[in-house]
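Input C-alpha cells:
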C-alpha cells in the first residue's frame, strides 16, 4: 500500500504534489502512473537493452555511450545523431514514454536492439522485463555527489508555490531515504545483488571508474552487450572517438544541449542544458560540511560496502 510524503517537505517537482512510497521506494505520482502503464502495455524483447540508474548518476553520459556503441556500424562520427539530438531523445525513459500517451506501435517498430531507460528499482521492474533475458546496465556513483547533483536539479523543478528547500533540509530527507526513486542505497543494492546473480544479464558500472579509465570501462560495456571492439577498431581509435564524442565537454558544448530555446525543449519543464551541470567527481566537497559527508559515508558503509560492493573508491 502506498503512503504519501508531506508535500511541503518532500515534493521537488512542478507537476506532482506528492511522492508515493511503493514497495519501500519513493516515486512521484507521475512515475507511479508510468510504472502502471508499463506493466499493462509493454512487451519486452530478449534483445532489448535497459539502462537502469538512480537519478543524477550521469544517466545522460551513459545514454550517449550506449547509443554510440550499439550503433557504431550505423553512424559515422562526423554526422552522428548526437551532434543534433539530445541524449534523452535518442534513448527514452520507458515509463515516461507511456505516460505521454505515445503510440505503442512506435516502440514496437524500433530497430533491434531497442534502447530504453528507467530509474525504477530492480524489484519494481515488471516481471516480464526481468524474465525476458534482456540486458540491463546500471551505474552507481558516490552518493555525496549524487545528493548534491539531485539538489541542484530538483531546485529547478520545484513548484514556485512551495517554499524553497535548503541544502540542509534536502540532506536530512536524502539520508532518511526520501528522494526520487530512493532510498538511494537500496536502489543501488538491488541492482548490485541482481548483477551477482545474473552477470550475463546485468552489468553494474561505477561512475568514478568510468571517469578514471573510460577506455577500459567502455570496452567492458561493449563486451557485455555482445558488441566487442575488434583489434582493428581499437587500432583505428574507435574507442577514443566514442569517448570524445560522448564526453561532457563535447556534449555540453553542442548547440542542441546548451540552448534553452532549442525546439527540442518545447513544452518541457526540464530543458536540455539542465542535464549538463559539471560532470565532476568530488563536487560535493564544495557543498557539504565534513559532518554531512561523514554521515553519508557511514550510511554507505553500513548499507552497501557491508553487502559486497568494493569500498575505498570514493575520493
Amino acid at each position: 500500500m502506498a503512503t504519501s510524503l508531506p508535500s511541503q517537505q518532500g515534493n521537488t517537482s512542478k507537476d506532482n504534489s506528492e511522492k508515493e512510497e511503493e514497495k519501500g521506494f519513493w516515486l512521484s505520482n507521475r512515475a507511479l502512473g508510468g510504472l502502471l502503464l508499463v506493466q499493462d502495455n509493454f512487451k519486452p524483447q530478449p534483445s532489448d537493452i535497459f539502462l537502469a540508474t538512480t537519478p543524477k548518476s550521469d544517466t545522460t553520459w551513459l545514454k550517449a555511450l550506449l547509443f554510440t556503441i550499439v550503433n557504431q556500424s550505423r553512424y559515422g562520427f562526423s554526422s552522428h545523431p548526437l551532434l543534433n539530438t539530445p541524449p534523452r531523445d535518442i534513448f527514452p525513459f520507458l515509463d515516461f514514454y507511456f505516460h505521454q500517451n505515445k503510440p505503442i506501435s512506435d516502440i514496437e517498430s524500433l530497430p533491434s536492439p531497442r534502447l530504453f531507460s528507467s530509474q525504477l528499482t530492480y524489484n519494481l521492474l515488471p516481471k516480464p522485463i526481468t524474465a525476458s533475458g534482456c540486458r540491463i546496465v546500471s551505474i552507481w556513483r558516490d552518493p555525496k555527489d549524487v545528493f548534491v547533483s539531485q539538489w541542484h536539479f530538483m531546485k529547478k523543478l520545484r513548484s514556485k508555490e512551495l517554499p524553497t528547500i535548503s541544502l540542509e533540509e534536502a540532506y536530512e530527507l536524502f539520508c532518511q531515504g526520501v528522494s526520487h526513486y530512493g532510498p538511494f542505497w537500496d536502489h543501488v543494492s538491488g541492482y548490485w545483488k541482481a548483477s551477482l546473480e545474473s552477470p550475463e544479464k546485468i552489468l553494474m558500472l561505477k561512475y568514478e571508474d568510468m571517469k578514471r579509465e573510460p577506455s577500459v570501462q567502455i570496452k567492458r560495456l561493449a563486451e557485455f552487450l555482445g558488441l566487442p571492439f575488434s583489434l582493428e577498431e581499437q587500432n583505428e581509435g574507435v574507442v577514443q572517438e566514442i569517448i570524445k564524442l560522448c564526453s561532457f565537454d563535447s556534449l555540453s558544448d553542442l548547440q542542441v544541449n546548451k540552448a534553452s530555446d532549442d525546439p527540442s525543449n518545447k513544452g518541457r519543464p526540464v530543458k536540455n542544458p539542465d542535464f549538463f551541470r559539471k560532470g565532476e567527481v568530488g563536487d560535493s566537497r564544495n557543498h557539504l560540511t565534513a559532518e554531512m559527508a561523514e554521515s553519508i559515508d557511514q550510511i554507505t558503509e553500513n548499507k552497501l560496502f557491508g553487502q559486497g560492493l568494493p569500498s575505498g573508491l570514493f575520493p
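The chain has 17 helices and six strands. The first helix runs from residue 7 to 10.
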